[in-house]
Amino acid sequence: MDLINIFLLLLCLGYFGLRRQSVIQILIIAVLITVVGLAGYMSWGTSFAQYIWGMRTTLRFFIFLINCYYIFDMEDICKIWNVLYKLLFVNVIFATYQYFGRGISGDMLGGTFGTLMGASGYLVALLSLVLTYVTSLYVYKKIKIWKVSLTYAGVLYISILAELKVIYLLLVLIIVVSAIISKPDPRTILIVAAAVILLIVALRALAVLNPVSFGYMSSWEDLIFYLNNSYTSEGGFSRMDSIPRINELFFKGSFSKEMFGYGLGQCDNSNIEVLNSIFYERYGHYNYRLFFYAMTYLEMGIAGLFIYLMFYIGILINTVRCSFAEYKEYKLMSILNILIIFIMFVYNYTLRSDPGYIWMLACAVPLVCSKVKRTETTTK
């Protein structure tokens, strides 16, 4: 995958050149990440090979984003999202078999993405993009309410089997933001009603199939306890306390560590033994790799977090500014996707692992649309 990614980038740069503002901006972000990661490595790192591996792990997504920008047009984007939509229902079948036929649930239930630990990360990305897609189509009167309801039901069904509690939160976010952005009308009331009814049914089903997971969502106090609780081992980091714990256990008031971290790759692990960091071998039991923002803070400090946040905020601003012409539904979809990415920043590690390609594909949509707009302007 990496070789194909680089090969396509070289072809695109050779053919189109660098005369694209969006590409230059993406490359600037990539360079900043490389420099900040190098600053941390120069101060506290232990292995240059691990730094190079960290560059590979991080920069591959920006290369993929540039390739998407060069290769795709809006017709391609429409076709891709139509495929993702159909893939949802294929995953309903796979998830049903994995849960009821093989007894697989939780993080290992990944539908068409397999049954290895962490496979559900792909499902979270797919289900999120499908939710924003059908909601946006409905808001702009491209599909009817029965199709939206069927899609919501399929998404919630999979989320029950895979114990993806975050999907409930995302659906609420999607409905609320869509209702705020779009003009209130009977269709808005209808989709809100459909979402509420399906959420109630899904929660009742979750209470029967997985009462422990339901218990975490039964009250505000239980939800806060869940967010503050470690994923696995006792003493591990949680979604809410990672930065304070990192400061307490590792950085200990060091300004350079807080600003630049330990360097790219210096806290990571790999299937290749030589690329396993000493830091991970000693402290991996804290499970900091489960959360993107925790891993980023460890390796690149405040500077790294700032760069990533500015990147996604920049994509959001570009989305709001772009007119999207006859593709208005993709503007709403892109806004919703970026908001979800901010949640993924804290929720899990998928922005840096392989499902990150799916999230970068979502980031490519407003860039592709703005490219089309500029091309039309130039032609005129």
From TrEMBL:
<feature type="transmembrane region" description="Helical">
    <location>
        <begin position="83"/>
        <end position="100"/>
    </location>
</feature>
<keyword id="KW-0812">Transmembrane</keyword>
<keyword id="KW-0472">Membrane</keyword>
<protein>
    <submittedName>
        <fullName>Uncharacterized protein</fullName>
    </submittedName>
</protein>
<feature type="transmembrane region" description="Helical">
    <location>
        <begin position="332"/>
        <end position="351"/>
    </location>
</feature>
<feature type="transmembrane region" description="Helical">
    <location>
        <begin position="50"/>
        <end position="71"/>
    </location>
</feature>
<feature type="transmembrane region" description="Helical">
    <location>
        <begin position="188"/>
        <end position="209"/>
    </location>
</feature>
<feature type="transmembrane region" description="Helical">
    <location>
        <begin position="23"/>
        <end position="44"/>
    </location>
</feature>
<feature type="transmembrane region" description="Helical">
    <location>
        <begin position="120"/>
        <end position="140"/>
    </location>
</feature>
<feature type="transmembrane region" description="Helical">
    <location>
        <begin position="290"/>
        <end position="312"/>
    </location>
</feature>
<feature type="transmembrane region" description="Helical">
    <location>
        <begin position="152"/>
        <end position="182"/>
    </location>
</feature>
<keyword id="KW-1133">Transmembrane helix</keyword>
